[in-house]
Amino acid sequence: MATKQQQSFPLALTMGEPAGIGGEISLKAWLERSDSRCPPFFMIDCPDRLGRLAAQLGYSIPIELVSGPEAVEHCFDRALPVYPLELATAGAPGEPDPANGPAVLRAIEEACAFVQAGRAAAVVTNPINKQLLYQSGFSHPGHTEFLAALVESPTAPVMMLACPELKVVPVTVHEPLVKAAANLSQEAIQHCGRVTCRALKENFGIAAPRLAVAGLNPHAGESGSIGREEIEIIGPAVAALRAEGFAVGDPAPADSLFHPAARARYDAALCMYHDQALIPLKTIDFDRGVNITLGLPIIRTSPDHGTAFDIAGKGLADHRSLLEALRAAGAMADMRRRTQARLADRARAS
Asked: Staple partner for 258: which of 13, 44, 117, 280, CB 3.0–4.6 Å?
């Protein structure tokens, strides 16, 4: 189904794992809505849970139940809009209960449905705990795969991690390092490169994206003396992407790809495995990293951290990554809307 996205539409924020820090950082994000340039959002969550959590943390936050995204603009300035979703058990911060798994998944389903119906601008997801969801029958490898299935994405999704100074895309993600190297393929690199370049145009407004590519081996293989993946896999993928018209750099040593002067030469870096991408990003800006899913027909972002059961409900959770996820989702939704409007105008003119 085609999506209609307008800047005035709110963002749909899911509850995430209710025993984690998602509720706390969401409350903090609403409290800073004016000072942080946070776009309007509504939570798909249990209002009683949020009320108890706010009281426990000492936050004075009025909660207003809404029947849909359309009501958000009328109450966001004075109250936290919540589309109500009941939990199986009340639970407590730091004490997860698998019985709440269906509600966690239902929040994601509702958020996707609102965006696909053109009633919300984007989905922002709070962290989930996959192991708990598996106990309630969850059958997908992860959050992203579940989202892709919900929106019937024709393109395999690609994970981008972003902060204001850097955007990185790992080609292999949650795999042991030995398997990541063994599973690296020319096809996977090309797919990630295509999806990333197109997203940089459509979602970030970069007319001519520049993509850097990290080598797998030390010194990018040093002409084959420290490994041949750069010659046999990564190099051919780069050549194929260039033949398709994308501006892609040669495989470069990862140890010299992320300093300030190097970052100025590209818009995003394609990395061969998880830590190669995440270590530089989290070193540069640990608290404001955002997880962005590329390739979906909808926009989805998430804070770049987990449920943090150990600090849940203690007022210690840092909400800056969620704020960045909300801001990024709003900006990308607006950029995608304007890009689509330009294309529609050109089509009509021709």
From this structure: 280
In this predicted model, what pLDDT tens digit does every residue of 230-251 receive, in sequence order? 999 999 999 999 999 999 999 9
Same domain, 175 and 256: yes
Q: Do 166 and 137 have their domain in common?
A: no
Q: What is the Cα–Cα distance from 29 to 35, expressed in whole angstroms?
A: 10
Domains in the chain, number: 2
**SS3 track for 72-91:** HHHHCCCCEEEEECCCCCCC
Handedness of CA 45, 49, 55, 58 (dihedral sign): negative
The string of pLDDT tens digits covering residues 270-305 is: 999 999 999 999 999 998 999 999 999 999 999 999
**pTM value?**
0.92
Same domain, yes or no, for 282 and 161? yes
Element (H, E) at 347: helix 320-349
CATH number at residue 234: 3.40.718.10
pLDDT in the model for residue 23: 97
- Give helix then strand counts, H and E, for the chain: 13, 12
69 within a domain of the structure (yes/no): yes
pLDDT over 70 (residue 157) = yes
β-strand pairing of 210-214 with 166-170: unpaired
What distance in Å separates the CA atoms of residue 341 and residue 235, rounded to the nearest whole number? 37
Q: What is the pLDDT of residue 332?
A: 95
